Structure prediction request, 275 residues.
Amino acid sequence: MKSEIRYAIHPDAAKTFQTQQLRDAFLIEELFPENNIYLCYTHYDRLIVGGANPTTPLTLETFDALKADFFLQRREIGIINVGGKGKVTVDGTDYALENKEALYVGRGAKEIIFHPGAEKPLYYFNSAPAHTAYPTRKVSIGEAETVVLGALETSNHRTIRKLLVNSVLPTCQLQMGLTELNVGSVWNTMPAHVHDRRMEAYFYFDVPANQVVSHFMGEPTETRHLFVKNHQAVISPPWSIHSGAGTSNYTFVWGMAGENLDYSDMDAVAPTQMR
Ligand SMILES: O=C(O)C(=O)C[C@H](O)C(=O)CO
Ligand SMILES: [Zn+2]
Prediction:
């Protein structure tokens, strides 16, 4: 496994960052090393952002930052397959995962195996500390709570698929889902928002070849941008907006952890208020 730690950054410090410092603090560039598991342990609500790209079965092991006997000893995890058809085994039970299907695994599960497949599955995951053990469950796109937002006229017509949220299944603090931008729409999360009670991570995928997304972050009146490629992720501190405009349409996974499980607890920022 490859792992790294990202410490929390104060907004006053982030304001002073040059491009490379911003990228080092908030952008995750390589989530899928071949036949390996990547883990980024963030100090934002201790959310772990990771990826698994198996060509042989890969087991999610504990690692030093956890000081735990096994990965989910004190944690829960949400896994979304962003590649071709795949399979994850949890304590001996197999869960087939098609593209964009999600698996929630509750605290206490001891063995998680990411399997390879002819269609090249890629497993993106978020894991957060958990106070109790909720049942492991697969969630398909059809089971998600789905909301359509925006319009083509404002270039932000998109479908939000809430997969691992408390209207679908119980979780301790994790919430995860997908947002798909319609053809011709490029803006996600516009109007933007902050939620000081939860941090968030965005993982961009299905970004067409040679296209990029300019991800906007920062306090609403101190915004900065990060150019993000396909299969890269951005850590969004609780004080930061998290929005993006692509050079085409694209899809992304959002994941959150923190004080509450209330997806709608957001402080909206009007486009005209931002600087
Ligand atoms: O396009 C959007 O709007 C989103 O996907 C918003 C995220 O789900 C989010 O930021 C939830 O807090
Ligand atoms: Zn948000």
In short: The chain has one domain: 2-273.
